[in-house]
User: What shape does this take?
Amino acid sequence: MVFAITQEESSVYGPAFDENREAMLVFEPLVDRIDEANSAAARLLGYSRAALRAMPVSALHPDQRPALVVFTQAVLAKGQWWTHALTPRHGEGRTLRLEYAACTLAGEPARLLVTLYDLDERERRRVDREAEEHMRAGLPEWQRMERIFRDIERGNRLILRAAGEGIYGVNAEGITTFVNPAAERMLGWRSADLVGKDMHATVHHTHAGGTHYPHHDCPIYAAFRDGAVHQVDGEVFWRKDGSCFPVEYTSTPIREGGQLLGAVIVFRDVSQRREAEDRLRSALAEVDSLRERLEQENAYLKEEIRSESHHQGIIGRSPAIEALLRQIDVVAGTDATVLVTGESGTGKELIARAIHEASRRRDRPLIRVNCAAIPRDLFESEFFGHAKGAFTGALRDRVGRFELADGGTLFLDEVGEIPLDLQGKLLRVLQERQFERVGEERTRAVDVRLIAATNRDLKEEVRRGRFREDLYFRLNVFPVASAPLRERREDVPLIAQHFLRAAARRLNRSDLRLTEADARRLARYDWPGNVRELENVIERAAILAERGRLRFDLPESRGSGLPQPAPERPADLGRPLTEEERRARARSEIEAALHLSGGRVFGAGGAAELLGLKPTTLRSRMKVLGIGQT
Assistant: This one.
């Protein structure tokens, strides 16, 4: 594509800018605008000059705004700066590797003159320059080897015998003329067996991968065809016993009276060097893998710490809590898979953490996965990781949650939300304790203790064909039920007092008190949102408190202006709920949450938060159940 400079396209920066062979842009960083671009920049970036002038600087660098801000601020602060960190998007969609060198321009507003250098083109020029230098360096090497050949002709074999490198000569037909002792030792052939034979067909006939190596491709033969010195690394020579070893060699042409007579080849066995390089690469890869894993673990743990805003233990003295603690003591010392069931907001994750902290795996991380929040297309990548280039957007290797949890505990929250067609992949990993990253053939083994949680009736899901029976049995090794607050009302005052202390610290208020009347009132309520709802009610009451007295926006009972209680649980009825009973129960809980939140679905204290659901999920359920928003 050719961009010709017309009179209309000429800029205020003059011909030195417009006709410069280097790509140049003028940025106005404070308004995120490309003020001007020359023709060289248009060719390099794949846009017309007019298009570039109409383009924000950030649009040329999608997803790189932080790096762009750092670069422009550095130029403004220092007067000039350069970077390789910016990779602009070409007009055809590909990413460019460029060096940015910028300086400030005088006057107002603040402007930067940015010169762009194509790093790939620079690398090609470097390779061409090294090749040219190598060709020039070939002359003294040729002269050195020619003197060796003349010494051989005069019968001086001291150098050949003393050399630690393998040396042999071939004539213009590729027939071996001599072989030194070092070459004999490395190749396993006696000199008498090789002299007079086609050397390529004897020791150089096959590539390392087993494919045939034709004569006409051999750099050794090329030396006495084109008269150039050929230095080669990365090939193999074959021994008499059929094994091969990596070599680097130099093939130097031999002339007499201007006529090419053959070549002398000097080679060395680089097995030890290659092994050392392989060990180094392996060690560096392992370091990179460990670094990435530690970075992700660190980021994950920081995220978990930020999300932890309250208790570190299970609070309560009710029979239900005492039974739960006994179950935790029993199962924590084993590696058995645990299935925690219970309504939303009953503290299923807290139970998982208690099991993990009481187990032998406490020094390794507890990795939580919210199965309902993972898009279907990213399920495998999120669980098992992916290799660089495995799919569009996979710009680097990624460690999956199973690998992060190696040696620790993996907590699958809302496991009932995993799509049916993806449950088989999860089952395979749970059974075999092995997996492959997406786009990678290497099988990785993991030692993971699994805890799953759900607010669904998985037996009913299995019966309806929405959950695999074999996966259900694999998860339900040790079931633990998390009781709702309405079944352990004696624990409500203790939990409320705990939340009140936390709220008082956050609000910097020391006058907040929970009276006995408050405790009785809280205990009478049925808490459809369970512990999560109780925490929100306490925090709201603390915010609205006057002179230390809490103000609860809470009815005396679920019958006071609230929808009727949900149908009894299957355990109370002695049978599973019917579909109509399930719908009635879901409707009742949603209507109760809407009442408490003043009809709000989204935001802090909204119905979605009270029920522990995504707002979009709650909207969908309201639509299915025919519930309007008040």
